[in-house]
Amino acid sequence: xxxxxxxxxxxxxxxxxxxxxxxxxxxxxxxxxxxxxxxxxxxxxxxxxxxxxxxxxxxxxxxxxxxxxxxxxxxxxxxxxxxxxxxxxxxxxxxxxxxxxxxxxxxxxxxxxxxxxxxxxxxxxxxxxxxxxxxxxxxxxxxxxxxxxxxxxxxxxxxxxxxxxxxxxxxxxxxxxxxxxxxxxxxxxxxxxxxxxxxxxxxx
Length: 204
Prior knowledge:
- Helices cover 74% and strands 0% of the residues.
- It is mainly α.
């Protein structure tokens, strides 16, 4: 098997893609590193060079999935800027990633495996939960007077929950992705609902 001329990034991507398929099909316990190397079309030596064990490979997939959502954490509240624009920008940072087929594939694999293994579930949850970014945005907007929120934690969970209710959880069952038009509708509806509930009342 000649995989020595392939770039490092390409090899790792091939291995991760193969591992996602293997874990989905067989489950973590029954998954085989031999089959993963065959699926990825790399030698076992190359596989173990990058990932020393199945556990290491699974953790790497969770980290890779988490990194796809890094843009969500980069968005911070900007005082004085229109709150609708800011909430929409934050929602799109999440929504754009949820429109990537490889992200949905990785998420389906991680969720299915964590249901079998509660210890893995606990470790993965902390890395994949982006709710704090939504909570931070809403809290800062409330502190600035653009929103009226008594419980930013609950409001943040509601906001990201509105997006995932249409753009994430149904995809876990179907394996599909939301179209750009449907994502636009979902985000606009989610932002409208948040502003309807928590928008600051402007006095005459």
